[in-house]
Amino acid sequence: MIEKIAFGGGCHWCTEAVFQSLIGVEIVEQGFVASTGANDTFSEAVVVHFDKEKISLRELLTIHLHTHASTSEHRMRVKYRSAVYAFSAAQIDQVNSELAVLRKDFEKKLVIKVLPFRAFRPSEEQFRIYYYNDPEKPFCKTYIQPKLDRIAGKFPDKLKNRS
């Protein structure tokens, strides 16, 4: 069964490539997500459509936490909100439950927010599939490839074969 959830953390080019590289992730929509209340502005994020029979929500959360600055409250957090955007109250509960367990893997406090999904605005076409369209770009080699290398080192069984 295909489910969806949205993630924000760093630039959406990086986040998109991370999730596109994973077994069980069927679609990654790159763009901007807004929530409600104090988080109602759009922030860079991706909507991930995944097959929960092939990759679990916990695995997605774990990889997300390890591929962005999930313990750093830096000056760019408005643009790069560290967040999980849930599509239902039940999904919010599930994410909070999983994060309660995953927090133990980090020495510093996680800054990630669990928020209700409100709206999505896609990136311009020319910026989508950014990494896989040209992995030799300097930005890709400097910022995205190290994240993919981290996944290969920590979660090698979750990577799609892209050869």
Automatic annotation (TrEMBL):
It catalyses: [thioredoxin]-disulfide + L-methionine + H2O = L-methionine (S)-S-oxide + [thioredoxin]-dithiol; L-methionyl-[protein] + [thioredoxin]-disulfide + H2O = L-methionyl-(S)-S-oxide-[protein] + [thioredoxin]-dithiol. Residues 4-140 form the Peptide methionine sulphoxide reductase MsrA domain. GO terms for molecular function: peptide-methionine (S)-S-oxide reductase activity. It comes from the Bacteria. SUPFAM superfamilies: Peptide methionine sulfoxide reductase. InterPro entries: Met_Sox_Rdtase_MsrA_dom (IPR002569), Met_Sox_Rdtase_MsrA_sf (IPR036509). Keywords: Oxidoreductase. Pfam families: PMSR. Its EC number is 1.8.4.11. PANTHER family: PEPTIDE METHIONINE SULFOXIDE REDUCTASE, PEPTIDE METHIONINE SULFOXIDE REDUCTASE MSRA 2. This is peptide-methionine (S)-S-oxide reductase.
